[in-house]
Amino acid sequence: MADIEDPWNSRPIDVHRWSDHPEVAALADTVWDEYVKIVQRSGPKPKTAFRHQLRVLLLDLYVAWLRDRTLCIGVSQSSNYWDTSSRYNAIHISKKIIPIIKTLHENGLLDLAKGSYSGPGVPSNRTTRIRASERLQAMFTEAKFERDDVTRVPNEEVIVLRSEDDGLVDYEDTDETNEMREQVRRYNDLIAASFIDIPVLDEPVIDDQPTDHHHCRTRRIFSRSEWSKNGRFHGGWWQQVNSDWRSKIFINDTPTVEVDFRGLHVAILSAEQGVELEGDPYDLPDRIIRAGPPALQRALVKRLLLTAINASSRDAAYRAFRDGYETDNYGKTVTNEQLDSLVAAFIKKSPHLEDCLFSDQGIRLMNIDAQITALVHEEFTTQAIPVLSVHDSYIVDYTRVSHLKEVMAEASEQVVGKALPTTNESFGLDEYEAPDFVVQDYINWRQTARSEGYLARLARHEKRTGTVVLPYDQ
């Protein structure tokens, strides 16, 4: 066993890993028989056999090991944490996982750093961290299964309700939650059947963010124990990369275009007050920030205003604004006086929005934009057309951009009472009128060369799904 040098390089345990691959079962049985073999001596029969709970743990350790040899898994050692009846624990992992972890550590299969607790809310508090030891890593290396053999349980909860302190809230299902769940699962099934990748990537990772098919599952997350708060769709890897990388995404081996709602939350607030939003709400007429190009001021204004809409006070907004930037970024140095000037200039341009600032509006507006996204998802899912959402924008293959904009207009009108403005930097083939040779030039420009890794992933996708992917130009 080795010491865990950085226990903060970690993620929470994922209790929804599963595999019926015979080599996975054989490895789990070997570990159980040789190192664990905990016997249930009394009490009711567990909902999930202990050796199957071990299999889930081993699979999550394996996935973490493949991604980063130093990555740890955070796991609670409190028996009260493991609620086998929780809707967020579909495999019914029980408190028996605690002695299983202890036994694995004692037998040299796990590196472990004990958790720490210094009082409520102390930043240094953390759960116990574990990772595969060199001995277990060697067993992974010898095993005859791969990452694609590790899947997820089909009944994993995709409608999540969180409390004020971000804990998970169990809830009673209603017709509405059941319908939301079915919509998300239909959407996830469509995305899983689609090939979503970036051709220029030989390895499917961007700045340590995996971009493969294992990171496409979407959930809806509601907040503050209320169905009217948040509700946005989270999970797709495309939400974790910047717009430049998103512009390189191909869907089913076809280039894509991203269409944004222009100033979405500002547009929603304006629509609620019956005011027509004209132009770019973040483009101020006066130059207040002179440290860089005009684009810098616009970026700062956008970040500031979205933060101000979310915050409950001016001080909280300004702190959050600066905290959102890295140490060497100019945004970190903007003073309160400069921020006051930017806010005042924005209010002068859009006076109807003054009362919406510093009023904790964000979480309500997220619920509204999530309702719009739900309609967009449902429309395209019904047509078996994959569309990727990034909260205020959507990515679709470039033969369907005009159709996407029509759906976005209809969805926003249904939710807020009027079609909200959209914008896209690249055009779609279905919205551009030009001579054939101009369109062909655009197609040629968009048809990026495919890396060897991309082509290998495409071949595996076709084998896994039993489909043949045909790009637009074929």
What's the quick description here?
With 474 residues, this protein is an alpha+beta fold. It contains 14 helices and 17 strands.
Structural features, described:
The protein is α+β, with helices and mostly antiparallel strands. Helix content is 39%, strand content 12%. The strands form five sheets. Strands 8, 13, 14, 15, 16 and 17 form a six-stranded antiparallel β-sheet that branches. A four-stranded mixed β-sheet has the order 1-3-5-4. Helix 1 packs across helix 2, helix 7 crosses helix 11 (362-382) and helix 11 packs across helix 12 (401-416).
* Rounded radius of gyration (Å): 25 Å
Into which percentage range does the β-strand content fall?
A: 5-15%
Overall helicity: 25-40%
Give the low-confidence spans: none
How would you name the oligomeric state of the polypeptide chains in this document?
single chain
Strand and helix map with partners:
Layout: E1 10-12, E2 17-18, H1 22-36, H2 50-67, E3 72-75, H3 97-106, E4 110-113, E5 128-132, H4 134-142, E6 151-152, E7 159-161, H5 175-192, E8 196-197, E9 205-206, E10 209-210, E11 219-222, E12 230-234, H6 243-246, E13 250-251, E14 254-261, H7 264-272, H8 294-310, H9 314-323, H10 336-349, H11 362-382, E15 388-389, E16 393-397, H12 401-416, E17 422-423, H13 436-446, H14 452-465
Parallel strand pairs: 1-3, 7-11
Antiparallel strand pairs: 2-6, 3-5, 4-5, 8-13, 9-10, 11-12, 13-14, 14-16, 14-17, 15-16
Helix pairs in contact: 1-2, 5-11, 7-11, 8-9, 11-12
